[in-house]
Every structure is written in C-alpha cells, then in structure tokens.
Fold each of these.
Amino acid sequence: MDLGIARKRALVLASSRGLGLGIATALTREGANVLLVGRSGDRLAENCKAINAEGKGKADWIWGDLSEEVFVQSMVTGVKEKLGGIDILVNNTGGPTPGTAEEMTAEKLETYFQSMVLRVITLTNALLPQMKEQGFGRILTVASSGVFEPIPNLALSNTLRGALVGWNKTLSAEVAGHGITANMILPGRIHTDRIDELDGANAKRQGKSLDEIRTASVKSIPAGRLGKVEEFAAAAAFLCSAPASYVTGTMLRVDGGASKSI
C-alpha cells in the first residue's frame, strides 16, 4: 500500500530511541521528511545518519526537552527552519517514574503534567493553523494501554495519559472538517529500553528476578511474546497516512491482544 506521505513533513517528539525512533524511521521509509527531537544530540545525529543512508525520506534533528518552557517555541522555530512547514505531528513523550497512587505527590504531578500533557497540547495548538490553511494534517499521540486498563505501579502514567484521551477526542471533532485527523496509538508491551527499565523496577519491588517478571508478563499476552518496535511503528505510520483520512478520534491498541477490555 502506498501511504501517500512521500515528501510530507513530520515532527516526531522523543525520537532519539525506542518507539519515537521507530515511528520516525517508518515515516522516512515511506519517503517523508522527518525532524527528530530529543535530548541527546550525538544519538540523534547517529540516528539521522543511519536513516539517510537508506536513501528514501530525509531525516534531520533538533535538540528539545519537553520539561523546558521554551520547548514549544523551539519546535515551532525548528519546523519552520528545517522542514519549511508541518504535515504530520507525532506527540510522543517519555514515561514518568513508576509508583503507586499514594506516592503521587503534588510536585510529581505538576512536573510530569508539564512535560506529558501541557507541552503536547500547546505544541499541537501552535502547529494547527498551518495544517488548517493547507487542508491536511495528521496528529498522532502516543499514550499507553494503561488508559484502558490501569497498569499496576504506574499511577502517574495512568493518570496523565488518561487526560490526553478526552483532549484528543475533543480535538478530533473540531478539526476534522479541515482535513486533519487526530488519533492515539496505545502500545502494550513493545520491547524497548523503557520496558526493560519497568521490568527491572517491578522485579525489585516484588523481590523477584528479571526473568521471572518477564516470563509472567509474556504469559499474559495472547500473542505469546513482546511486540517489536517495527510492528508498532508500522501501525503508527498508517495512522499518519493519506489512506487513513477517514480514521479520526480513535485509539488503536498495539498490544498482542493483551488488553482484556472490549
């Protein structure tokens, strides 16, 4: 299938590694020009070098930290200078520290709200006028399967990512008439460094080995394995595509069937 995004301009947040990098790579393989964002310039430069060696879409990078107040303006400026405009926005953020609901202090909530919710919404609003003017836009927000089924010991993530669900659905109805879609993609257990970190935290909390935690996790997934970044990224690329023009306001689970909700 031709996704119809060759030469489209995409900004992918938190794309120095993991799911963000996977999405950025998938979009460039479809011929898009992608601007990667992260806090490690060396890693971003290496990623762009590898992507550009494939000779399809083009990749460039810009330093950005979602926790900083200047983040949104930096992204707007970077999009203008390095892409010349925007067609696709992938809102991806790092996850918060593990912990229970009782451990959510006001300070932690405020800190992670800034980087995981506020920056996402304000950046999207800043880039929407151009999408409306050109009559095309794709907004994809990466969240978590925890918005359907809260994940134990991830209270901050369950709370803050859930806030984006109502926002995305509201936004999707407001911009649909302008040729803009707004969707969410929810990863289950996709094998990334983040999953390794969370499994390590759970092993320590439960007094078990990492292998025990991983084995129990895999048993809970009907597919019988962890997902691959490439599989997740392929689903994300479709939601950013031209053929997905009538798909909006949705949440797509990529979890190997792990979610028990309908």
Note: The chain has two domains: 9-188+228-253, 191-226.
Amino acid sequence: MEVRREEMGKGKSELRIAMEELSMPCPGDDEEEQQQQQRQKRSSTMDLLCVSKHLIHVLGEIGPTLLVLRQDVQQNVQRLQDVLARDPSKYASLTAIVTEEVEEGTSKKVNSCTRSILWLARSINFSQHLLEVLLNTRDQSSLEEIVEKAYTFTLKPWHGWIASAAYRVAQKLIPERVIFIAFLMGICQEFEDFAGDVKVLVSIVQPLLEEANAILVKHNLDKLKST
C-alpha cells in the first residue's frame, strides 16, 4: 500500500502502476520470444489479484455508489490470496483452481474460489467497459450515465435483487466526470497519454479474462448469479 501511494505521489496514475506490474518485456529484436517466455512464467492467479487490487482503489474513487461492489471485490481477493498462499505452485493458474473445485464438487458453493474468479472477472469487465465508454464519449456523457451503461451491460444481468437495490440507492452519489478522470490520469499526465494507457492495459488484461471465461464456460459455470 505504501509503495502504491509513493508511486501515486510521483505522479503515476493507478492505471500506469497496474500496467507496470503486469507489463511484458521491453520491445527488442526478440520481442515475440521474450513475450512468450514471460507469459509462460506468469501466474494468472497473481495477475487477477493484481488487477483486482487496483480496481478496489478505482471503485473507491467513484464513491459510495459502488461500495457493495468494492466490498465484494475485496472479499473475493482475500479468498484467492488465501488459497494461493497454501500452495503458490499448485494454484498458480485460474484453470487449476477451478478444475480442482469442479472435481471436488465445490465449485458452485457460495464461498468457492470459482465464484471468486467469476465475480472478479465480471468486475474487471465492468471496469474495462466503463473506461472504454469514458474515452469514447469524451465530454458527452456524465460519469453517472457512463457507470449506468457499464453496469447494465456487464453486472446487472447477474445481480440479485439485493445487489441491484444497493446500487440504485447510492446511484446519485457518483462524483463529477472531471474529478474521476483527474484521479485516473494522475498529476503528470495528459488525456492522450491516459487514453493510451487504457488501451495498453485492456490488451494486457484481455488474455486473463479469456482464460477465466474459457474454464468457466467449459464447466457451465459462467452464468452463475448472485442471490
């Protein structure tokens, strides 16, 4: 946490810090080979945790509106951290975690790691959609409208009445668009650089979401809903 705050103090945005933590090797003559080796060494479980932790801070800046979602992300992060700590090698990949729980018959339980992976992936998808709409609409839509679009498109179909009601109650507390963008950009960044960071981060995160979705679809777990 202190390291993250120190980096923010140097002008780096939350997105830039996440990019650096998830980044591939620097371009070079053997860039493709380096990237392949890097992908083989990476842990998709650790990458999901990394993105999700940064997501918690971003959701915090949106305000009380997404308190329920932020708490849900925190709970799921902790669950995955606990299982990874038990055996970092065995549970290095999301596929390994889901496969084991499917074989044990525990994948659909409320406190399963499979559900944690599912909801973290959905939350990241929500954030990705929010950022893309934020860039594409420029000054045409308020942050409230953008969050509403992202929520309707990504999370609403899977939320039960409790989560949906909590979202509606606090919907009017979303901050102004300019304030949120200022947080995302950091203190030493132009909008064009911020837009570039979003595109790079999305490209890095996409394979992670694809792995999670592939194993969930394989075992018909991708359409589980909250209560």
Note: The chain is about 70% helix and 0% strand.
Amino acid sequence: MTHSSVPVPSSRPHGRRIVFVDHAATPGGGQLALLWLLENSPHLDAHVIFLSAGPLLARFREAGIPTSVLTSRPFDRRMLVTALPALAAEVARQRADAVVATSIAAAKSLAFVPLRVPRLVYLQEDLARAFGRGLTTQLMFRTVYPAYDGIIANSRWTASTIPVELSEVPRAVAYPPSNAIRLRRLRRFGEGGVVRVATFSRPERWKGLDLVVDAAELLMRDRSCPRFQVDMFGGGAVMDERYTRDLRHRVEAGRLPIRLHGHIDDVAARLLDSDVVVVPSRLPEPFGQVVAQAKAAGAVVIVSDAGGALEQVTPGFDGLSFARGSASALADSLRSLLDDPRLGTRLSDAGIAEAHRWGDDVLAARFTRALDEICDRTRGAPRKRRRAFGLIRPWRSVRAGSVKSAITG
C-alpha cells in the first residue's frame, strides 16, 4: 500500500472543511462532476481522498485541488477492505467537519471508518438497481447505508429511490455540474439538408442504443423521410462487447445511416456539430450530464420519459421526450424534427437560453447549500449506526418489478 498527498494550499479560503472520498481517479461521470464541482467552489475548504490513482488525478492537482491517494495500483474491489486502515488514518489526519462519499464503492469503505463528524453520501445511482446483483451486494447495501447521517441525491429521481427505511435520514437534491460550457454555435439546424443525430452513451443494453437503431430502421422504410445521419459516440472499459458487436452487425446488414465511433475526447466539438442528441435509456438515468451539455451546445435533446434526464427538459419547449423503451415513439419524435426544421431551431434556441440554469457555478453553489443544510441538521446528532435493514423483506422503495426485465428483456 502506497500513500501520497498534496498539502492544502495556504491561499485556499478557510471555512467548513469537507473531505470527499472516491474509489478511483478515473474519468467517469461522478469523478468529473466532482472535479467540476470543486473547480467552481473556490470558497470551499475541500480535500479529496482517492482509494486508487488514475489519469484524472493530474487534472485535480492542476486545478489546485488538494488530494490524497492511498495506492498507485488500479482499483479493484478488494481495496474496499484492504484500504480501510489507510483510509481511516487519512480521514483522521484531514480533521474534517464532514466527510462525503462520492461513489457507491467509496460509500462501502467509508461506512466502516470511525467518525465523530457527519458522514454523508452523494448518491448518483438508482438504488433500486441493487436488486438482481446478488446477495452479497444486497447485504452491503443494507448494512452500509444505515451508517450515513445524510444523503445528497443528484436528482429528484435518485432521491425517490432511497428506501423508506432511511426516511429519517436528512436528504437534499443537488444536480451535479456537467461542464456545460455555452459555446458559439455556427451550424444551423439541418444545415446542408441533413439532420445530424448523435448519442453519447457507452454500449450497454440498458442505455437503449438499439432503440435508436430500431427507430432508424422504421424511418428508412418511408422513402419520403428527410435525410438524417446518426453518430454513436461512447466506449471505454465498461461496455458490453457482445451488445456492441450486435449493434454493428445490424447497422452494416441494414445499410443504415449510422456510424459507431467508440470513445472520443472532443465531446464539445461533436455536440456543436450535432443537431439532435438522443438519450434513449431503457432505465431512468439518475441524472444524465450529456443533456445539460447538449442544450448548452444548441443541440435538441430527446430523452426517455423518466429519470433525472427528464428533469432537465420541458418537452415541447426546450427538448422532446418519448415513451421509455419504445422505438416507434422515438422514431415519431425524430420524424417531427426531420419534417419541421423550424421546430428544431425553436427548441435549440430555447435550450441555449435555458443553459444558464445548468451552469457549473450555479450547480456548485446549490450543492454547497445542500451540504451546509445537511451538516446543520446533523450537528449534535448522535453518531451511531442505525439498525440494518431486514435482509428478507424487500425494500419498499423499489418502484416496480420490471427492473431486471428492462435490462434483459
């Protein structure tokens, strides 16, 4: 086990000291949101502890954000146990006023670190999805979350999945920063007679990319359909290789106007070059950073009709929605934009005008207020582990029995 840290700069403002704990400095959505949060919170006396190193560590340090890294090795789940002594020692050394776990994995370790200050979790995952992951995962969830004194959820949807067994735990909703920088859009909607449609999701079935392929097939059956091009961006270590091969085979066999690009780094440039961005998730997205990013870039967003992504869109005003899991409904939404470029222009303009509501500085300020609110509510409260949930009785927060079928059906 190795350990390295960067001391707190003396120029950083003093105030309530917050230590954030994440399992790895990898460029995932949660880690990037934490980076953008702290970059836009110069008044916050913050320190980040990573259980393992990763390529994002340099960006945190370049931004002047104090960090500690417990091991230089790539993350594996055994670290949730083996890193506990080092994590407890580092948390104690930082003398925090509150400690926040920013990932599910980090929450599992932090739950067993002795603390005399509020222990909070920034919840960025639908807890109902814990079902179907095996007994070990359920045992962890039912013993981990009773240890926390407060929960900040990244959307109202995410907050709605918190089990009623934790109803007495203080909670708040704070949307994560998305680096949704407003850039100058030069392309007009449907310029050149082709509407450019894009997705920015890793290839997994629950992300619903096959619904976009289905919708394209439906549109291509009508020879009067205006021209369109679909570009699918996304890949990386966490992806379903078989699902990706199936998508590619269907696109090639059907000679569809779809291109699969895999992972890209220049997301902003691709957004600016897209007329429409589709978020076709079968299961509700806890938040969906690409929605805020696309609106700021002037692309029209089409989202499935549940989850945190829908909280960012007013259908018919600054975007569109479709019935979750329905390729025909998605095709109808796309066709409305293909047939009426003026509708696309109107929705694009409204999205750009609304982008200020999702600016990183605005969301960072809201997160800080939520953090202060929960810390104030937990001040002086006894630090004791709540009784673990019953291991037989199912969580009453599960919204429906169709979670597994939505993934595998």
Note: The chain has a mean pLDDT of 87.
Amino acid sequence: MFRSILVHLLIFTTLTANFSQVFVQAGFELNENYIVSKLCINRDKPQMHCNGKCYLMRKLKQAEQKEKSRERETQRSMHQLGVVVEKLSFNPYLTLVMQEYKEELPFRLPAYAAEIFQPPRV
C-alpha cells in the first residue's frame, strides 16, 4: 500500500518536472478569459490582438528559467557528490593492512567446482 502510493507520487513528481511547460500551457487554456481580462499587459490595446499571449510567453520563460536553474543545481550537486566520494575513498589504514598481509594463504583453494561438490557414493 505504502509502496504503491510512493511509486505513484514519484512518477507524478517526475512527470511534473519534465512537463512544466505543458502545465503552463494547459493553465493558460483553462483560464484564458480571466487572463485576457485581468492579467494581460496589453488589455487596454485591443488592436494588438494579444489575447493574453504576452502573459503566456512570460510564464513559459519563467518555467524554462526554473528548469535550467534546477538542472544547474543538479549538476552542481552531482559534481560535489563525486568530489566527496573521491575524498572518502582513500583510507591509509586499509593500504597498510593490504601491504602487511601480502604473503600467500597457507591453504590451497580448489581450482574447479568438481573438487568441492562430489556426487554421493552408494
């Protein structure tokens, strides 16, 4: 139950992040009359036949800038994550231990699986 809700939430979040311009366009289409009458910059100039396109272009530009900034932030965090992992991978104690026990093991490992697994004898 919880996993299915989580999966649906993650899918929805991924889709909304990738299709933000589609949602802006859909919001414009649904509220076109209100945008033309109240929010349009050129509502006092009907001869321009803007019909709210200025508002739509402004919102699409804002969505694109948000997406670019989100992408830059993701790249920055991935770069920082890579640097941190690289710094954490060095362990001087581990190299000392590896150098200390370089001699051979006192027993021989089997070369083939048949040496270990034998059929039962009757």
Note: Helices lie at 2-18, 20-30, 32-39, 53-88, 92-100.
